[in-house]
Fold this sequence. Notes:
Blueprint: E1 2-8, H1 14-30, E2 34-44, E3 47-56, E4 59-67, H2 70-100
Parallel strand pairs: 1-2
Antiparallel strand pairs: 2-3, 3-4
Helix pairs in contact: 1-2
Amino acid sequence: xxxxxxGHHLTITPAIHDYVLSKIERIKRHxxxxxxxxxxxxxxxxxHTVEANVHLSGKDIxxxxxxxxxxxxxxxxxxxxxxxxxxxxxKHSHAHQMAGGVxxxxxETDDE
Length: 112
């Protein structure tokens, strides 16, 4: 998994970088199909914005979070991203279960 963190009007400090890495670990637990993640942090006066583009196999997910505090914005982004990845994972696993699961196949009975 590739991780790219960039800052607009913001210097990415080691503390912010480590905090983002700790939040991204939660995402890697839910899905092993994450190819790369690009995170952009922006500061405009009192508004801190964090955006993430996650490239999964077969799908791209974009999430954005805003707050007055950068760490709160990162927390919000991680929560939103976690929900999206779990939703995507459940969507694909449910389709596979419905298509080929043994318990969803029709039973043949010999009533005659």
